[in-house]
Amino acid sequence: MDEVLSQAVRDTGAHIGAVYLLTHDGQSLLMDAEIGLPPEIVKPWTTVRLDAAVPVAAAARRRELIWVPDHQDLACRFPTTAIALPYRFAAAAAPIQTPSRLWGSFVLMWPASHPYDLAQDEAEVMELASGKLAALLQETGNGYAPRHTSRPRVVPPPEPQVAEAHAVGAARYVDRLREGCVAIDLAGRITFVNGLAADLLGGDVPGLLGRHLWDVAPWLKDPVFDDRCRAASVSQEATSCVVRCPTGRMLTFELFPDPAGISLRVTPAAGSRPIEQYTREYFGSRGLPRVDVFYNLLHVSAALTRALSVQEIIDLITDHVMPVFKAQGMAMLVAEGGKLRLIGSRGYKHALLDRFDGMTLASPFPAEDVLRTGEPVFMARSELRRLYPHVAFDDEMAAWAFLPLTVSDETMGICVLTFGDSHHFAAEECASLTALAGLIAQALDRALLYDTKDRLAHSLQRSLLPRSLPPVPGLGVAARYVPATPETGIGGDFYDLIRLTDTSAAAVIGDVQGHNMTAAALMGQVRTAIHAHAVAGVSPGEVLKHTNRLLIDVDTDLFTSCLLVYVDLQLRTLCVASAGHPPPLLRPPNVPAETIDVPTGVVLGVDPDACYPILEAPFPPGALLALYTDGLVESPGIDLDEAIGSLAEHMTRASAESLHHLAGTMLSHAPHTERHADDIALLLLEHRPDRG
Residue 284: its pLDDT value, please? Predict the structure, then answer.
């Protein structure tokens, strides 16, 4: 297998190659062997999920050759890979397969100087290599398993044959240059060092040969130097940076790579400028070194995977993307029904936003080109006016980036970034912005889908709750329902009031375990069952007993807590039964509120033989009864009895002109007033002596 990979690298002129094999569960690809990559580059890519947006996974998944001609194309099609490898290169990935089985895939990489198209002979070499690798694996048998170590097998590149006299002459030539010269292999080991470089590294030539550069000079564990080594290895292009050595001297490191390693030329940095000025000189004029931009984008990409709402995505772009690229404005638009719909913006005047919100896709505007081609557009003000003379841009911006929001080869919208100062879009910046737009599109697609599902779920939940409660003469009623925050999911809290006679009613409140559609659906069944049994004239304990048997019969994995209260206004009494639910609060006239100590039965849906004892309590005119779910009182680290006692004190102190105002006051006592971790249901009943 190693020889096949080495020959493919040699015959195509590639400088990097790797073989990935499919795991037995078919979910991931493990790197089995590689050639031309330093260990620091290999480690993050030793395991790749088959469903990942990575060329080597796409080749295996689609069972076809994937060609990526440059970093811009990589940014458009595989934004996650472009963010993780922000360097210039070309790559091709091909599946390793037989007619009956997919074994994995392999990838070859070329320097950025490779022609835009993959040559026919290169494609043929890859096809031949794929067949040879598949045949070797087939011969090994179905029992073959990929390596389970964290480091794949490293295939060494061919070493040139150099005569001893030639090597000695080369060493003397380098010494005469009076410059520091160091050569390292792909593992970072020093394979050559001259005397001047040895002095700079704090050692002598014999003592440094064979040692790792970063062990010899720990001060080179600098993020900028590390990034330039990665860039040189992947792109095979010369690069440079300035590093401060322990003595305080500024040293310029020029890196010249080839497939076997990197040659370093070390010279004193010109002048005595601060290190930040050297960094800006080498990495552009954006104010931040490219490596810092890279790590910032990694943070943004990780945050985007967790974003559940459009607003979160807009905030991430505003806080972490616009400052890095020094953008003054941002607008996010999606294509719907042949028009553009604005879903978020920063830094734009409302009048300008109103002009473009609702614009048809056929309008003369760069967005139409981006949506049609899926390619980004970067242009200065003069070019924008020349190409689109009928479009009025009065936002005083100097440059624009129109970025496609593409998911699964479909462009769903555009992200527009604007720049107030004269702005030159370097190739690296264009690729970074394009890759970032791809990640934004994936997050936005999830957020829009989540928003739709969330609206449908909560619409279902609210449809299962009573639209209005029946009037009962002499009984004041107020009910509130507060859903949990969107990321928690739909809940199963419910309440109801059932009129039994002209002077009596049944009040119920409950909480189905879980936050999903199943919980909401079960809530509807429980509420219906309680209503049916209550109007039949049985006691609260019997109602809960029959409802419990129903839940046992439907064989659900969820359980339900429930509190059922019969209110008799003529007898001025309450009859209460509980299935594992928090106790109700009663505030008699001119008396502090306190809990009603109801005997608690087990929650519904657990024990088919469970019984639910009842308790009778007085309910005099002017008394106030509060039924609630645990979302109003439960909080991590807080004792539940103490929390209920605190709610009773709050209820005692609260004064309100109406029950609805009192309900709002009690909800303000919830432990999570801004981000509710659980649903809250609240039902207030007041015995009004002026009934009728």
Answer: 45
How many residues can be counted in the chain? 692
pLDDT higher than 50, residue 281: no
Strands of 239-244's sheet in order across: 190-193, 180-185, 261-268, 250-258, 239-244
Instruction: Answer for the pair 198, 266: CB distance below 8 angstroms, yes or no.
Output: no
**If you search the block for the tokens 């039949």, which residue do you land on?**
536
| Cβ-contact 456, 490 below 8 angstroms | no
Residue type, 347: G
pLDDT one-digit tens code per residue, 391-415? 656 567 888 899 999 887 788 999 9
Contact 484, 515 (CB under 8 A): yes
- For residues 75 and 433, what is the distance between their CA atoms, to the nearest angstrom? 8
Rounded Cα distance between 486 and 318, Å, is: 22
Percent of the chain at pLDDT above 70?
85
Average pLDDT, rounded, for the chain = 83
CA distance 493 to 501: 26
Nearest to 162 by CA among 171, 175, 154, 153: 171
Q: How far is C-alpha 671 from the chain's CA centre? A: 28
Angle at alpha carbon of residue 614, lines to 608 and 617, rounded to 5°: 160
Q: What angle do CA 297, 303, 309 make, to 5 degrees?
A: 125
Amino acid at position 93, single letter: A
Q: What is the pTM of this model?
A: 0.56
